[in-house]
User: Fold these one by one.
Assistant:
Number 1:
Amino acid sequence: MALELSKSSWKLAFLSGAGKPRIRTIAGGAIEQLETEIGKAKRRLKLPEDAPVKSCYEAGRDGFWVHRMLEQLQVSNVVVDPASIEVERRKRKRKTDRLDATKLVIRLVRYHEGEPKVWSVARVPSPEQEDARRLHRERERLLKERKAHQARIRALMATMGMDAPRVLSLKMVDWAGEPLPPDLHAELEREQARYRLACEQLRTVEKERDRRVKELDTPQIEQVTTLTTLRGIGTTSAWMLVMEVFGWRPYMNRRKAGSLIGLTGTPFDSGGTNREQGISKAGSPRIRSLLVELSWLWLRYQPQSKLSQWFQKRWSTSGRSRRIGIVAVARRLFIDLWQFAEFGVVPPGAELKKTAG
């Protein structure tokens, strides 16, 4: 069974071996209807009532609750990365929910018949692991909101010939010292209130994060504390790395760890053509950007490390080459930080923070 999900309706495609898929439509999120259609499909396909059901759907706005619901219904489900599904290369192609569901169920059969690379399967976190990612993601949104409100206040003041200070303690007068027009004055007050609310909520989120680091005793918090013992790694960076990646994704080897964040190369080697297309940019953009920032900090605070020495020796010739080289540093640093958080292996040449006393 393949599910093509939308807000108002779900398309279900049923298939048993070869043949034409059976397509049904139910209301979005209608669990009882889903159970009924599964039973009807078994009878239509002449299968016993206890026949195992395997299903799939594409990862999207619905998240993972559908996966957990299917597991409760004794359905073996996989969540598919939409970007990994092969598509036709014609200039114009047909696309409907019915066609998408049909293609999904056919690929599901191929997947269970021994073609694991027909697509990429997303790893589903537990409800606790998924909830642990809320705090730092909310902090990211609040930072963007605060910056947006600040920019809006500056723009409004600029129309009156005034420059708002960074602290935004505004004097409601124009360039000539005259009071601002009443509607502009009211808009600025409302914008200031939203700015102060974003600042207050940001402080609340950061205090909660710091409290958990100090008081909780969990494997994830232990990893956060371990990472912060390295010079150049703070609580914000360590928290995001652990909650997004290290705390719930077991790895098999260094290659998988490096390719997860999309910092691996994508060569194009066909016939007489051989060129590098750049990094793949797969995985989480927030972790990728964080690692680039951490790489610059690593070069500053860990200059004697093997990784920093390698960068200075190979990539310190010009500004452009440094920007290219920092990507390679980010990939290697991610692997080093994973080994340090998971196994306690200190990166070669790295220094730990000095503890008081």
Number 2:
Amino acid sequence: MEQVGLAATSDVTLWSLFMEAGFVVKIVMLGLIGASIWTWAIVADKWISFGKFRRQLDQFEQVFWSGQSLEELYRTLSDKKTSGMSAIFVSAMREWKKSFERGAKSPIGLQMRIDKAMDVSLAREADGLEARLSSLATIGSAAPFIGLFGTVVGIMTSFQAIAGSKSTNLAVVAPGIAEALLATAIGLLAAIPAVIAYNKFSSDAGKLSARMEGFADEFSGILSRQIDERSNARQAAE
């Protein structure tokens, strides 16, 4: 009897537990494994894209504050696909040039249109940074409960096995309990990295958005001074 018990114990592997699990528990486990894979795919994508985004911000700030003409910088960037501060700069300069080409005479109205253009561009960039973070939040909050559902079903299976065999022998109870705990473990395996990654990337997205907002405020001040200078020059000429 002891040798039979040892043989039964040796057969309790993760794969055997999965294969012997009920249909519902298998679906739960597969769903949680898929969620875990999706989590790590998002983590890899965000890690790479955020690093690239930071480098783009650094490069643009270096060029912008180097003393290069705003018109020259705009001509360089206007025909390219821009992101981050570059997109905010191009949107503001495009509105600036359109307004002066149409003979805008109200400095206040021009300033409001430029600020609005930068706000729209800033919101678009912030949305891009936060893309797919909601998936991490959903996985982090829902995966433990989905795993718990699999646990409950597994324990119910154990009780059914006990009732069917009319025995409380560990060899009868253990597979169902192990199956139940495996569902919980997979749920936590999916949830914990998702929560950590969500907190990390949400913080990074907030910092990058704040950095872009700071640039937008500084650039708005620069354009405001130029608008005042042009307005004063126009009034002096008249």
Number 3:
Amino acid sequence: MKRTISILCLLAFMAILTADQSEAIPAFARKYGFNCNMCHTSFTKLNDFGQRYRSQGYQIPGQVGGEKTAFEKALPIAFRTMTGLQAAHAQGHTTSGFVLNGLDLLAAGVMHKNISFLMIYTPRIDDPSADYRGYDSAGPSQLGALESANIVFSNLIPNVLNLRVGRFEPAYHMVSSKRSYYRLGSYEAYTVETPSNSFVFDNNQVGLEATGHIQSGFSYACGVVNGTGGNPDNNTYKDIYATLSKVIGRGEGQSAGQRFGVFGYLGWQPTVVPNDSAYIPLPEGDGRGNNEFHRIGGQASLNWRTFSLQGLFMQGQDNKAFNSISPDEKYTFTGGFIELDYSGLWNNRLLVSGMYNWVTPPDYNGEAKVSSTSGLLRYYLGDWTAVNVAIHAEYTHRQIGDTDPVKEDYAALLLDFDF
């Protein structure tokens, strides 16, 4: 495995030396004649201007009402995919292979003054059908999904109230996993699944969300959603959430300013199937026997020059009706991550990042603590008009348990490109 990692790092370094002088949507850059880094520190992470542009419903701040609509310009469609070499080492076995990491189709733009849209579709891909570990060889490598489809009504009260309706990445994702640089090392706290509760924190949700800026550098978000991702929901109750953040200094806390925030999510799921024969979560059921769960936490984003340090801590608790491991106790877990990013060289062409994240289940649970350490190097190619191709080298070490732990290692050398 050490030899494989050394080869991947060498290839990444050679590619940087020989290169020409990158959830991005290059269609926006084409629309305005901007470089991609106008909105991104390094794609896919938004900078302060990009965050404000998104909040304004894909309208340039200070120019609201002067935008060309999607009916007056070419339809703003973009594509993203990644291809390259990946390797894995687990349980004494090493595998590697070339991969094609799916395809995202993105469209977003202004439909009318202060009315805009976003759609992200991941089409089903049957060929190639297997990943480099031989998984899913009999099925598609990517299932078709409408990941996002929403309408944004901006400036209902200027700067104070915007509404988003449809399926979207909810604001309680105070650090966006959809715009993360990492492909192998996910935010463990976002993806954890607790016993008999089908809620996954990382999922995009269907519902209604209000956002806005208020006085003294505060911003808020609150929403009502199904809480079942893209699955149907016949629950008696809807889930609710809220966030509140404060930026100290100039900026949005993305690439300038220091941002501190808190979030809370309160959800309900039915635990009774139609024949009342078992206690299991059933979002598609008849909505009886509802019990609550919550996720609460805090986030900080600290920026200095081209360094960005961000961290998140979350505590989750499920009603004991969901706890199939110990039915007399509530299921409580904690998790979080710390990530440090550095952007350098001309036009932020070089990105270096390191991340540590973890999930700690309850003491009585037979499940073990999960922790992972990741490192990443990206170099962006292209000229001023289109920095939208990146050489991506990444390594993740994942460990499950403290005594006699299960260890996993993943490495990748990929090309990430948007157009």
Number 4:
Amino acid sequence: MPNPLFVSRKICVLRWAETVQAGAEIVEEKVMPPAFGQVVIRNRYAGINALFDRAVVRDELPYRLLNPPFDLGVEAVGEVVAVGDGVENLQVGDFASTTRFTQAYREYQTEAAQKVWEIPELSPQYVALRPTAVSALVALEQVGQLRDGETVAVSAAAGGLGQFVVQFAKMRGCRVVGICGGAHKSTFLEQLGCDAVIDYKSENVEKALLAFAPKGIDLAYDTVGGALFDALLNSLAIRGRIVVSGYSADMGRPDLPEIINAPRVYSKIYWKAAQIRCFQNALYPEFQEDASRRVLDLYHANVLKVRLSDRHFKGIDQVFEAIEYHLSGQNIGKVWIEL
């Protein structure tokens, strides 16, 4: 049996728990030489997806991905340090972008070479581009069916995903209103190009949406849910669409009451011929490769901008802290960690 190349540390979920820190621990593993068609990558940066991480550890997903023990993390950027036989698209020293569940919150990963994207530089910007920006593009085009010049509203617009939804809509000549919480986030959205900004902490969102778009919103992109979803739903235009790409306000809240006497959702949208559509990234795999190429082309052409969170986390030991920071909602841009 061959000798291991490295001893690596990673975040491993050992038990179901309320928080990631309670359910997961840092463990060591031996990194073996790559098999045929595989490469070993030294991860340097990883993206943080705290809501997903927490839902996984709480066993709250409607489908169970794995049973403990299993590892966490999705997107990572690193450097190829070993190449197996039969690999032609990568060599030692190449920079790599990967996006696969269980591969990111770890110091080294082994991956099939055909699933690895070579990138021109070792930069944390890429953990925001793949899959976050890719998800935004696929959702807008395939689910939202965005059209040129429409009126678009984006919740959590200053976050890791929202920043790209705003930019892709502006590229299509749309009027965009960004919804966020806090003056510092409002300033960022103005700089990003939003035509208007609504601070839900100090404004009545529904009234502000009406002032921005008296005839209604053509396309709303929501990742928050709760009261923000209600405001967006009530603000849809004739034949408007709302894309649900998450519901952070209500996720992980089994205590939510089932409101028997509330209006049925169809009573809100039927007379407008409006639609509610849902996007789950994993269920649109056929569009990922093309969208990835286009996103990277836009970034390399300096058309698409990336905002990373200013908070710097470093080392596998700080993954738990980075997750808690993301859950706090303080961030502007993509939360990330240097490994």
